[in-house]
Amino acid sequence: MNVDVHSHIVDRQYLDxxxxxxxxxxxxxxxxxxxxxxxxxxxxxxxDDMFDIDRRFDDxxxxxxxxxxxxxxxxxxxxxxxxxxxAAARHINDALAKLCRHYPDRRKxxxxxxxxxxxxxxxxIWAKINLLRLPxxxxxxxxxxxxxxxxxxxxxxxxxxxxxxxxxxxxIYSGIFERYPIFLTSWRTRVARC
Length: 194
Hints:
Radius of gyration: 18 Å
CATH architecture of the largest domain: Alpha-Beta Barrel
């Protein structure tokens, strides 16, 4: 069975809230994309067909994908503060749960990681992952401070790679790989140790 571990939930209310909260400019492209931009950089984007569940299932069938593991893409809910952060997380979790309940054989929710997942307080999580021999997927985020990355879509093209490198480096230096021989997969790289 083929499983797509890197697929995203696309939710109109989330995108609308993102645009209003961050005062994003919306720009349309010739190929039908809507870009949501801040300071000249794309923060998120969508296409109408991304909201079409039947079309997404057809796409899965063409690629021989039995199941997709869904998560929320960057910038996720980390750009909201306080109560708004909680509300944004609750909304997207509810939307994800509803979608997965409707299509339990084709959609599964991903468990979100903590941004500081190499801390000692996360040891019980890594121990359980190791015990169950579960794969771990690391999805990068935009850097919190994008100063110096203006233009050329550098937060996307360089910032995400930096975030992946930072995550892997923290795992290496924290000794996680030595204590727990887990598999870590990333959207661009695979770091594995058995």
